[in-house]
Amino acid sequence: MKTSFKKKNLLARMLAVAVSVAMLGGLTACGASSKEPASGSAPAAGDTAQTAAAEGESGEASGTEAAAGDSGVVVPQFEERVSLDVVAFVGRGEADGLRNDPVSKYIEDTLNVDLYLTGVTEADWPSQLSAMMADGDLPDIFLLSDPTKQLPMLLDSGSALNLEPYLEEYAPNTVNDPAGKMMLEAQRMPANSPDGNAYLWGMCKGSWDDGTVPTCGHYIRWDVYKEAGYPKLESYDEDLLDVMEAMVAAEPQTADGQKTYGCGAWFGAGQGWGEWVFTFGLGPQEGVNLIETTGRVLGVSTVDSKPLENNQLTDPEGIFWRAVRFYNKANQRGLLDPDSFTMTSDIYEENLKAGKYMFNVPGWMSANANLEFNKTEGNQKTFISLPSLSGDAEDRFGNMYRGERQYVVNANTENPERCVALLDFVSTYEFSRIAWNGLEGQFWNVEDGEPVPTDDYLKVTKDDAFGVETGVNVYHHFCGFGNGTIDPDDGVAIDLYQFSPKALDSKMNDTVKDFISHYGQETQADVYRAETPVTDAGMYISFGDPEGDIASYVNEINAFMGKNVVTAVAAKSDEEFEAARTKMVEELQKNYHVDEVFQYFYDKAVEQADDVAKLVEMNNAIKADREQ
Length: 628
Prior knowledge:
6-stranded mixed β-sheet, 13% strand, alpha+beta
């Protein structure tokens, strides 16, 4: 067993790595796409779990199992206490190492471990991981920020554990849960495994919202829309611009005298993040995912992941260019904040909270703005997500079936059984609810079979200090399900603070009520299901590392678009915009292999048709079971 001394020095080792990286100056962080859109499942069947094996050389299983409390979660019993190093995307309010919050202690007591936890972000971890891999000094369990690139390197060095031999005995909750089975099945597919075995473990399955706050949505200040007289709103390309103009006329200034605009953006953030409103500002609302790993040349259906036959960067009427044209038209009409060309997202979000914009796309920013508005007594200012304006499908009730964050177990760990048991335990619905709300009895209780938050809980401010004290949100990206996922046992979303019936009722101001009434429905979620034929969504395709020169071509396409696309937004007329767009398309086709890249990824998508069909069938079975 590893010594506690080594555990306590994981942070010191990582700091040393960081210093080495800084001195070398040559390691590049690998970015990960968080837009691989997973929901619903069935309760863990504890009574079908396998009996734990007799204790082996590592002193692992005792041969008996017990449930964690009365939850029904099955936990193999371990007699010997061991230490585990875990590097994860977790709250960082407390120093790395042994945590003192009650949720961390609950994990340790349940699994008989000392949990040395190191919190990282996807910005700083890739370079640290690269250096630790080179040094052969990896934690027991750790995050992969870019599994497509990082898993093959780990496998080549014999550093990623094959999970298959441990699943039946040490992951009983996951293998008996339909959502868990689907996650594991996806990990075995060719895009995610070289040999059909599961090496990756997905966390944050399900959804980040309850359908009312989609990650990518068309949000408007409904209170101002009402004040403007509910102008016609039936299309994205034209009506939405007219509506923004009417709303600005209805509220030309903020409460503190700042000029209002129809919308803003953060083009100043540069390539990638600075182009987010083009990548995600229209596609999800019309049933299309633009795949970032393809350079956004490929779009696929949010319903069944079938690839679209048009190249999104060369088709002037494709999703990407329609979104660019929308912001150009807003700019031409004086509806786009002129600071959009230089500002970053943090400034943009402060402007949103100040009431400067009538339209917004990122759901989390809309939610944060609403929280700010609600600090005023009797507030009616509210951003509300619109139903799809012109699509027959939209990405609203998403399904991150594979998990938004991917983890691996070190093949050289001395405690593989305990590692898999830990992954299994934190992946349950029950632990996910604890991860988001704290332990039962503190901020929530079960009343008549339904979890209900306390009045005090709905009034707290969730910050790092609160996490240190209570454990709430510490494990936000190291738990099985996203906070908007519905627990099939009780029909209530995991996150009681945001999405429980009591929480939703507390946020139900007159503006939200007016939105629901306007569409003639009883709840906000009912509006979306009534207005759009297909609102459930999933991303069933995965792409491995491109072969040959394709990876370089994608990087070159991304760099070219990142440098030039904003010039089209700045065009002073429709003619100037079309000329700029045409010039960019011609340049892409002439010098950037854009058609070759599209054909490569289109063919790869078609090759996955059988695997995709299997995942769609599994997901449909889960939905059917949930609806019974």
